[in-house]
Amino acid sequence: MSDNQSSNSTDSLSFANTEISMSRTARFWILLLFDVPSIICTLVVLFCVFVDQKLRLSVKNHALVILLILGLGTQLVDVPFYLNFIVHSGVFPPNPSTCILWCFMDIGMYNGGAIILAWTAFERHIIIFHSRWISTRKGRIIAHYLPLLFLILYIFIFYIYAFYFFPCENTYDYTLPFCNGSPCYANDPIMGMFDWIVNITMPTLLEAFFSFSFMFRV
């Protein structure tokens, strides 16, 4: 994936022209004061799950662990990058690698979390209403471990390819959050549509469907 830095032309939007009414200082401290406890809580929950064998082996906790790890990427990379952006009034360091990593964590990990969340909503039906499917080791491999492994591999393979290897040219504006936050693959008629339908729309609809149907079944 090739990269092209945006020029400082007169029609370029600046951070100042797109800011919300809340001051930068207020935004900085609100994000920081919520992000730090969030990171601590995530690490505590992960620690408790990993050290307790019963919690670690429970199938109902595995998708939760994946969600927490994906969320940790946002907490440790996405939010700090934005805090850094507020401090410097621009992307720092201003280079394509920063932009790609920021967008990867912001878009890839968020959409990945939505996919895992949709699977979690579906898996609740299996755990509660079809527990016999996962009562044996073979059943757990087929109905639990393999789907989770497939989804994890799919998320990372798709977004690593989309951000780092897809043959298109990014245009970055270091004066805007996420370097303008529009990866070039999203403009491709096939790749962009596939991402929108499969990774964004479908997980949202499926999660809502499985959650509501679960409520009516209990």
TrEMBL record:
It comes from the Eukaryota. One of its GO terms (cellular component) is membrane. This is G-protein coupled receptors family 1 profile domain-containing protein. GO terms for molecular function: G protein-coupled receptor activity. Keywords: Membrane, Transmembrane, Transmembrane helix. InterPro entries: GPCR_Rhodpsn. It is found in: Membrane. The lineage of its organism: Eukaryota, Metazoa, Spiralia, Gnathifera, Rotifera. The chain crosses the membrane at residues 28-51, 63-87, 99-122, 142-166, 196-216.
